[in-house]
Amino acid sequence: MDEGTSDISQMSFEQALCALEEIVQQLESGSVPLDKSIELYERGEALRKHCQARLDAAQQRIERIVTDRSGNPTGTEPLDADG
């Protein structure tokens, strides 16, 4: 499964999410043989981890714009700085 994992690392979040949704549909259909189901599950888990890593990275980049009393921007701070 190494070849499948390497192409996952090159996927955008949207591509990985779409591929994961397709896998879920195939598994939920119940028409996939057991061996193929296991392969799909493993690829799905790799896709899920990739999506989570992309979401975590995006969350770290999000900042809130801080304004003064007049409403003028004065800088930024982490989005969750208020607790």
Structure notes:
The protein is of the alpha+beta class. It has 3 helices and 2 strands, in the order H-H-H-E-E. Strands 1-2 form a two-stranded antiparallel sheet. Helix 2 (13-29) runs antiparallel to helix 3 (34-61). The longest helix has 28 residues, at 34-61. The protein starts with a helix and ends in a 5-residue tail after the last strand.
The dominant shape is: elongated
Name the poorly predicted regions. Answer: none
Calculate Rg over CA atoms.
19 Å
Average pLDDT: 86
The total of helices stands at 3
Largest sheet: 2 strands, antiparallel
Short description:
The chain has 83 residues and is an alpha+beta fold.
Q: Helices and strands in order, then pairings?
A:
Blueprint lengths: L1 H7 L4 H17 L4 H28 L1 E5 L5 E6 L5
Antiparallel strand pairs: 1-2
Helix pairs in contact: 2-3
